[in-house]
Amino acid sequence: MNHNKWFSVICLQALLLLVFVNSASLMAQESNLTDYYSYPIAISIAYLSWQPLASLNIGYQISDFSGRVEMPIQALPFLRPFTSIGISRFDGLDTAFPDKWDHDRYYGLFGLDVASRIARNFEVGIAGSIGFAQAVFPNIDPAGAVGTTYFLADGQGILSLNPSYAFSIQFSPGLRWQKALSPLSLYDGMFFSLGFSVGFRFGEDPDSARSLIRSLRLGDVRLGPAYPAMRGYYAESGLGEVSIENIERIAVTDVNIQFLQTGYMDSPTASATITRIPAHGSVSVPIKAVFNDRIFSGEGSRKVTGELILNYLRSGKPAEQRIPVTYELLDRRAISWDDDRKVAAFVTPQDSALKNFTAYLGRMFRDNVLPNYNQPMQIAMQTFAGLATLDLLYQEDSSTPFTKVKGEAQAVDLVNVARETLSRRYGDCDDLTVLFCSMLETRNVETGFITVPGHILPAFNTGIKASDYAIVHPDRSMTIPVEGVLWVPVEATLLSGKNGFIEAWKRGMEYWTANAGSRVFYSTRKAQLTFGPIPLEERDLGLQYGDSKRTYTLYESTFDEVGELVAKSYKAMAEKSGSKQDFNKLGILLASLNRVKEAEDAFARALKIDPKFLAATVNLGNLQFLRKDYAKAVLIYKGALAQASAALFPKTSLTLLINLARSYSALGQQALANQAYGQAVSLDPERAKEFAYLGGADASTSRAAETISAGKILFSDEE
Description:
- By secondary structure, this protein is α+β, with helices and mostly antiparallel strands.
- 33% of the residues lie in helices and 31% in strands.
- The strands form six sheets. Strands 1, 2, 3, 4, 5, 6, 7, 8 and 9 form a nine-stranded antiparallel beta sheet that branches. The chain has a five-stranded antiparallel beta sheet with strand order 23-24-22-21-25. It has a four-stranded antiparallel beta sheet with strand order 13-12-15-16.
């Protein structure tokens, strides 16, 4: 064998090895393209030039022409069985006897291609086949033609260029081993070849418009109408539901459903994944939608067209359908009352306009906040006074008044967010309820709302235990117990300024009492877990907040009236019972109302009944703290601490140590404050955590925290 043949063999073996390795590694990676461009049958014709790997009796020029039919396995389109028939012509190059050894071989092969499409227009693979050939020597014997049969085994590499789906050009380096089945073994051995083929593949091009798969269609479509305020709900539970039908006689698999609303969504929203839809079967799926903030930009209802995007496999081939769906997008203020909780979406505690307003009220009442009186009650009264001075007008919606649409699932009402009601200075009961709730939530007061036939009104959580109702109002029926704590209803339509907070409170309780069989209470924060608050652009509306003097006067008169109601009730209780405990409770209440002199008299009455009554002694020290006579408070606390036993009076001892630490801190004696606080921690670590600042390293830190605490002191009740 000459060097050129050895070089050719080595190159051919390297090429076949490379094709085999690439085919094996790409088979899994590119199976999607192979599946996508699969075909049912292909035909081709080939030309090969063969060279023996060992010397024959003379030199030959060997040409091979063949035709092939290929039928891929549809379930595994990279496996392609084929059959081939052809003729190999051996032309002898002996100059002495140029025709003697010329002969033709007629052969047939059966084999298998393993090929993978690595790109849209390229395939690689390997092929193997076996078969038989019949050689005919017309000139060897003067008596006539001589024939012999050969066994053939072929191996080829496949490098295919596919200019289109139907047309292919294949380059096929190969090896052939042949063995004569007769004594004529002259041509036994290995041959290698280089050649090409051209082929035509039947089937439909999946990229052509004519062959696009349309296996699915929409059945029942129930989308919308879409309420912008329900945006959070649509992302979790869906905008509606559609029925998807498979119109094919075979199943479709791996169905992924997305929804896109151009302009109102940043990207398609994944709605559902369905493993299989059987032939002529159907499924119903919710259509989820993650809308962006532009959904709140429009007023009035309008028809919009979205797009359902369906991706799936049919017979292993990927397909995509985009189907338009039309539904109604309603006004950004729209709501239906099929679920009353939806109104919580309009309560917007993060509204910058409300934060500005509530900050204004906070500054106005900063020096009048009583740290030892219920904070939600104070904030609610301040907020009511601030809104009342705006002279808000209660006015029903002309087209959809709440009194008519409440409970009508198909009726569409309009609800304004708080900033819009503040700008317009009027609203119906749902607008004013949203306004009051939003204002309180902005100041971290928990709110709720109550619906009764034809009406809605707000309520707020005092945080006071239901058993302590007398702290809020002497009449138990003036509060609503919810999960063990007291809530106060407020009739928001009385925010006009003509009626005060107490009248609105009474009217709210009248609605609650008169509708015992039909009233429903909702927590705003719980409702917002399903119907989240709508987002608003941050901006100052330039609102005029009303007359500050009038606001202050309204609040003061309301606070004094509420305080007097409660104080009279406690005083009557103490006078009637004559017990030291009731006089002590009266003193605590009066101190929380900043009626310090009256509180001192009440504690003195308790001590007159029992001079050794420790709780009253501690509370007299608290009055000195409120008067900012911290040195005198320390003396009283130390005397009481000497009298108290941590074993017998753990609660009172803890109160004394915390108050003593606060007094030392106020005097700038931080080391003594740390010592007293450390003793409190040893008694009750959990309760002492609230006052952890008292263990600060320096007095400035402690005084800063004292400012935040705003003078709140621990009063002592009976152990």
